[in-house]
Amino acid sequence: MRALLKNMHVFVRSNFRTMAGHCGGVLSVGFALGVCLAAAFSTAQNTPRPGSQGVTLIENPNTVRAAAFSADRHMLACATYDMKIKLRDVSTGRLLQTLAGHNDHIGTVAFNPNGLLLASGSEDHTIRLWRVSDGRTIRTLSGHTNYVDSVAFSPDGRWLASAGADKTIRLWEVETGRQILSLTSQEGWVHGVIFAPDGRSFASLAADQTIRLWDAFTGKELGRLAGHPRYIFALAFTPDGRLLVSASLDKTVKLWDLSTGKEVRMVNGYSDAVRAIAISPDGRWVASASGDDPIRISEVASSRELYTLKGHTGTVLTVAFSADGHRLFSASDDNSFNVWDVTTGKEIYSSRPEGGR
Questions:
Q1: How far is Cα 25 from Cα 4, in angstroms, rounded to an integer?
Q2: What are the residues whose beta carbons fall under 8 Å from the beta carbon of 338, sequence distance 6 or more?
Q3: CA separation, residue 143 to residues 83, 110, 140, 177, 237 (Å)
Q4: What H or E segment, with its residue span, contains residue 59?
Q5: Which has the least CB within 10 A, 105, 192, 214, 216?
Q6: pTM above 0.70, yes or no
Q7: pLDDT grade for 206, boundaries at 50, 70 and 90
Q8: Which residues on neighbouring strands pair with residue 9, listed in sequence order?
Q9: Which residues of 165-182 are buried (b: 16+ CB within 10 A; e: fewer)?
Q10: In the Cβ-directed half-sphere of 174, how many Cα atoms lie within 13 Å?
Q11: DSSP string, 242-262
Q12: Are 276 and 26 in contact (CB under 8 A)?
């Protein structure tokens, strides 16, 4: 089902820009609480890229599969196809730690709210909690019987939610590693779970084409959102918790009012599956990534498209805004990443593997 997204578009209030640099498909997008720099570079040397306003970091070809920023804006964690996690200084790109321990590919990473712990989920069926200061595994959470596809900390950091290919959602107590809940009522692979901003509930999505809302304390199902006729790829809450946004294989983005469970708006016009969405920290913008379209950034209130980015030669795995919304990070399975100045549309940093353009 993987669709290649050839360009990225970003839209911001009265300006339209195309940011050239990526050359391939977009797989997912996300807004993050850290300043954006990035990811899949290891033994990098800083060399100017022709035509670029920034710096190109030449590196080994370990594609980024997942990335997360710490809330203090200082650190970026990137899971690569070599089954490792690289922790880097956001402002310089300097490698701080390499975390190794999983026995299969890592598909999801998340920092806890204070940035002292990192959670990772893997195809080895386990979740690891890492101490960021020294890169040690402090706890391995076992219980899933298949690939762990999603992990998310609660806003207060006490709980960790996980979901995976064993059709379950599990809730863990972070301090003890004890499993609190196991929910199995969705059909098919549960490939996403996110906490609501107040931490009292969480949402999940699975192959049954529904979004389900759950009470985080009791595990009781609070409601279902149905309307996408095909596979749902991604979810995002607005910061006030009033709206949920979903992206689907049906080539649409839907906005849902959580007080009524009703669809507020459907955004179409995409030429392929919408594989990823995210909401900016101030709740004003939604980013969406689809097939052969560029990434679009639109206003949440009106769904009006603002402007676009394009550039990678491969599928873009991650896009994230800095906390102030001034920078955008993107990483691709062409083994590259870009960091953009959203206010000017200029490339600040980029990374290309040896032999890349």
A1: 4
A2: 19, 21, 22, 38, 311, 312, 329, 330, 347, 349, 350, 351
A3: 20, 19, 10, 11, 27
A4: strand 55-59
A5: 105
A6: yes
A7: confident
A8: 308
A9: bbbbbbbbebeeeeeebe
A10: 23
A11: SEEEEEETTS-EEEEETTTTE
A12: yes
Task: Quote the CA–CA distance of 345 and 104 in Å, as a whole number.
Answer: 37
Q: Which two tokens stand for residue 154?
A: 């609660």
How many other CB atoms are there within 10 angstroms of residue 285's CB atom?
A: 24
Taking only the tens place, the pLDDT of each residue in 283-324 is 888 878 776 567 787 889 999 988 777 766 665 666 676 667
**In degrees rounded to 5, what are phi and psi of residue 35?**
-65, 140
Place of tokens 């995002």: 236
Q: Decide: helix, strand or coil at residue 2.
A: coil
- Distance between CA atoms of residues 265 and 55, nearest Å: 40
Q: Using CA atoms, how far apart are residues 326 and 89, in angstroms rounded to an integer?
A: 18
**DSSP label at 200?**
S
Q: Hey, what are 3's tokens?
A: 């669709």
Q: Report which DSSP code applies to 283.
A: S
Each residue of 241-270: pLDDT tens digit? 999 999 998 999 999 999 999 999 999 888
User: Mean pLDDT of all residues in the chain?
Assistant: 77
Q: Which two tokens stand for residue 42?
A: 């290891």
Q: Could you give the strand order of the β-sheet that contains 285-290, starting from the edge strand earlier in sequence?
A: 274-279, 285-290, 295-299, 305-309
User: Cα(108)–Cα(94) distance, rounded to whole angstroms?
Assistant: 22
**What is the β-pairing status of strands 346-353 and 55-59?**
parallel
